[in-house]
Design a protein that fits this description.
The chain is built from 6 helices and 2 strands; from the N terminus they run αββααααα. It is mainly alpha-helical. Strands 1-2 form a two-stranded antiparallel sheet. Helix 2 crosses helix 4 and helix 3 packs across helix 4. The relative contact order is 0.17. The N terminus is likely disordered.
Length: 140
Amino acid sequence: MGVTAPQESARDIQPTMKKRRGKSQSPSIDVSLQDAILDDGLALAMEWGSNWLQPIQARLRQKYPKFSAAELDAYDSVCRAAMKFGHETVYSLAQKHGKNPEYEDFARELRKRYAWASPNNLSQLFSQGMYYLWKDGGLK
């Protein structure tokens, strides 16, 4: 499994945001704000407890109530993909470099595809990936 892929950003979800309340319109949110929304969504996707692996739309709507269902679905999709890619990246790095992948290698790979992810979310995602690597007994 490779860990390199095209970068996904707010620009990738803009086509799903062209219709709001039946009217066609161009997205009115700038890319930096959308990147911040994606980062918020990633934090929600990574929550432990009762929200673990649950859709983020309802929780994201609490913070951003004006989004349509299609917009929230698009954010959910990108954020869950980022989380999955992060977990897979830890495994991939462990296969290449042994059971203790380096955070710097992980962050570099994640930023190639999800440049909008904050340092805090990158750290948490790496920790989750390492937890699952450990839980699964490391590399088999």
